[in-house]
Amino acid sequence: MIDPFTQLAILILRFATWAIPGLIPFVIQAVETHS
């Protein structure tokens, strides 16, 4: 059985790999507007 901390880490990694590509355009836009 996988311990809860490992399971949580896997969930966070899965969410990060799914969310980061969607967030990149917002990050680029924010950097461009602040520079």
Describe this structure in words.
The chain is mainly α. It is 89% helix and 0% strand. It is rod-shaped, with a radius of gyration of 15 Å. It starts with a helix and ends with a helix. The chain crosses the membrane at residues 12-31. Keywords: Membrane, Transmembrane, Transmembrane helix.
Q: Helices and strands in order, then pairings?
A:
Blueprint: H1 4-34
Describe the structure using short key phrases.
single chain, mainly alpha, 1 helix, membrane, transmembrane
- Shape by Cα distribution: rod-shaped
**Are there runs of 5+ residues with pLDDT below 50, and where?**
none
Question: Secondary-structure element sequence?
Answer: H
Distance between the termini: 49 Å
Q: Quote the beta fraction.
A: under 5%
Helix tally? 1
Helicity, as a percent range: over 70%
Structural class: mainly alpha
Mean pLDDT: 92
Number of E-type strands? 0
Which radius of gyration do the C-alpha atoms yield? Answer: 15 Å
User: Describe the biggest sheet?
Assistant: none
